[in-house]
Amino acid sequence: MGINGIHHVAIICSDYPVSKRFYTEVLGFTVLSENYREARQSYKCDLALPDGTQIELFSFPDAPKRPSRPEAQGLRHLAFNVNDLDAAIASLHSHGVVCEPVRVDEYTGKRFTFFTDPDDLPLELYEVR
User: Fold this and answer.
1) How many domains does the chain have?
2) Which of 9, 19, 23, 109 could make an SS bond with 13 (beta carbons 3.0 to 4.6 A apart)?
């Protein structure tokens, strides 16, 4: 099949300006393109990390909430790798983002934590150093 990696993850947000600010100013994504699609009354914003990984951020009027807890079926969380977990957590805290206590992966020995975006979507930081 030849899959090389993940190109993007699509997220539908409830408050587009709030989510755009979170993913750019708090998490550090770069805006590649931003378009308002009049026919759908929807924004589509392509965001990227330095390694090329992208998030497509969408707004749709009256999009229903997705159940996520307790452990609903479907995508469980989105994980970002970081070199320094403590520095990443400190950066999130400086923006008022609360992280769960750091845990250690019982199989890899790597440290990780969870936090949420403005729509309460579960995000993870996974230390890879």
Assistant:
1) 2
2) 19
Q: Which residues does residue 10 pair with via DSSP β-bridges, in sequence order?
A: 56
Cα–Cα distance list, 47 to 1, 87, 90 (Å): 27, 22, 23
Buried b / exposed e along 28-53 (16+ C-beta atoms within 10 A): ebeeeeeeeeeeeebbebbbeeeeeb
Give the pLDDT score at 56.
Answer: 94
Strand partners, 37: 42
Q: Rounded distance, CA 123 to CA 86, Å?
A: 16
Least confident segment among 7-21, 54-68, 90-104 = 54-68
Range of the domain at 103: 75-129
CATH of the domain at 18: 3.10.180.10
Residue 119 CB neighbours (<10 A): 17
pTM, rounded to two decimals: 0.86
pLDDT at 69: 66
Could you read off the pLDDT of 68-108 as tens digits, one per residue? Answer: 666 666 777 899 999 999 999 999 999 999 999 999 999 89
Which DSSP letter does residue 16 get? H
